[in-house]
Amino acid sequence: MAGNYDDRDGKIWMDGVLVDWRDAKVHVLTHALHYASSVFEGERCYDGKIFKGHEHSLRLIESGRLLDMPVPYSAEELDAAKEEVLKANGLTNAYIRAVAWRASGPDMGVSASRNPVSVAIVAWEWGSYYGDAKWQGAKLDISKWKRPDPDTIPAAAKAAGLYMICTMSKHAAEAKGCSDALFYDWEGYVAEATGANIFFVKDGEIHTPLADRFLNGITRQTIIQMARDKGFTVHERRIRPEELSDFSECWLTGTAAEVTPVGQIGEHHYQVGQTTRDIAESYEALVRA
Questions:
Q1: Which domains does the chain have, with CATH numbers?
Q2: Catalytic positions, please?
Q3: Minimal CB count within 10 Å: which of 83, 139, 224, 247?
Q4: 73-124 pLDDT, tens per residue?
């Protein structure tokens, strides 16, 4: 599928109805456009099966709850809508975006409790999120921005507003020839990339930042369980920036990223080693099982 995202053929599910792709529009006074009252999910369908689709539906609902924005559909209704979108567009391998937002209504200020919550589900073909870096190893910049204290934001929500610094950081990284950027948290510990969680390898053991101050990705949880089932020791802990030079391998995880090796973070270099390849191959087999 090519062209701008607002000018394509296909169907989009909006509030219970399939509409033509080009007709899926919202008003300029939609609350989410002005105040970031929006949550979303990214999912992948492999060979006709959405990987952990129900878990994503549950998280969309939980994200809405955390933003005081009740999603007006059950997880089962969202699951059915995703299947409807895939069928309507003739897709068996696709990326799926479910989004819920405060729409336009009688309120147009910070408070918008009287405005309805809308939901849309879209699907399209999307290849590797990092392009050739998926096989060669991504190069990461280190962002000047920090992941904020979870006492200041709903860190467990997949909320659109939390991605503002992600867009800024990824733009800055790309301007330097990098694929992405690594965030530290507000205390200076290693956190995550702009849209993916991060893992490291040292002496055959896996280390990943403790996900209590940023989104605990569904793919992240899947990889941790998979690695433990395969006999790897996995440490979820605080990782200091000065430790980045101690690790031999590194990779990113996420629905879009899947398992993407990292070859460099700032001045630190990593090999695409056996552990990374093992995890990537096992994840590929799992999602297509």
A1: 11-124 (3.30.470.10), 133-287 (3.20.10.10)
A2: 158
A3: 83
A4: 999 999 999 999 999 999 999 999 999 999 999 999 999 999 999 999 999 9
